[in-house]
Amino acid sequence: MKIPRKYSDKHFSQSQNVGDLILPQPLNYRLPHIPTKPPSFLGPSLLNLTAAPGTTVVLPCRVLYIGSASLSWLRQPQLTVLSSGNTLFSSSPRLRLLHSPGSPDWNLQIGPLVSEDEGSYECQANTEPKLSRKVQLSVKAGSQGKAGESKGPGPALALQGVSSMGRLQRTEILAPETMRVFEGGTATLECVVTEHEVAPPNFTWYILGEPLDFSHHRGGILLQTEKKKRSSASRLTITRMTLSDSGAYTCCPAGAKNATVHIEVKEVQNRNSFFSPEESTASTLALDGFWIMALSFEFFYSAVHI
After folding, report:
1. Of 35, 37, 98, 101, whose CA–CA distance to 64 is shortest?
2. pLDDT tens digits, 244-276
């Protein structure tokens, strides 16, 4: 084998074993794989919003650990791409992408609403497999009450009620009214206050009627708070859920209305058990009967041969 000219004479002699030649490698040669967390969407997988024509809504999409992935807003069922990353493809002045650098929010604002805006919208991450959250938007005339209250399901993050009457402050928990979690799982509740003139100075969570106190409640509870110009949020994460964690969870932002959801912790059957409880009992009785018959036979056999 011939030694490359750039490594001959100057670095090695021809008599040197070519097998000992060590070629330089790039700096990232054989670097260990560094695992990263996949993107994680917050809030329910499907959110129903109802608003009146002429108002403005914000379709929420909050995702953590986005990394190198990008988010897109799609209109279903036409699969029309409304945005990708920071780029908004729609030329309509009624659509606006609300995102700040470093923020986990990639919200889509639509307004003033028209009846044609009704339909399904999807916030999708370009991961494999695909991860997404859907928003079902209903545009109905007369969906606003006397005080501007929505009679239908309200938005989680919204500018709903933007009209000549002014904006209405709302408090919402990004979760179904009844959340079901398996024993040992994790529950995340995000309480959002929108359209506030002044951000709530603090959020207080009540767990089963008792205010959250880290010196009193068990471990495995994480609380995060985020304040912005027009919306603020408090995220409560509870790990290692037990049956005793079932009950009401209330978010009380100072100076704003409260919001409550219920968590139902479902018992996980013993996966190590081959039989169900009924089958296990029947199997135990059958085995007991077998041993009784075996001992009886052995006693009879011994008595005959004595």
Report:
1. 37
2. 999 999 999 888 889 999 999 999 877 554 444
Of 164, 165, 249, residue with least CA distance to 206:
249
Q: What is the pLDDT of residues 224-243, one digit of tens each?
A: 988 887 788 999 999 999 99
The H or E element containing residue 75 is strand 71-76
Rounded-to-integer distance, Cα 268 and Cα 270, Å: 6
Residue 233 DSSP SS3: strand
Contact predicate 108/82, CB 8 Å: yes
Give me the domains of the chain, ranges plus CATH numbers: 38-166 (2.60.40.10), 169-268 (2.60.40.10)
Location of structure tokens 């709530």: 200
Q: Which residue has the tokens 């805006």?
A: 117
Give the angle subtended at the CA of 243 by the CAs of 242 and 248, to the nearest 5°.
100
What is the Cα–Cα distance from 53 to 167, expressed in whole angstroms? 15
Secondary element (H or E) of residue 296: helix 277-304
Beta-carbon contacts of 268 under 8 Å, excluding residues fewer than 6 positions away, are 182, 183, 184
Which tops the pLDDT comparison, 282 or 36? Answer: 36
Residues contacting 245, CB < 8 A, separation 6+? 187, 208, 238, 263, 265
Identify whether the C-beta of residue 85 lies closer than 8 Å to the C-beta of residue 66.
no
CA dihedral 64, 267, 191, 209 (to 10 degrees): -150
pTM of the model as a whole:
0.43
**Length in residues, the chain:** 306
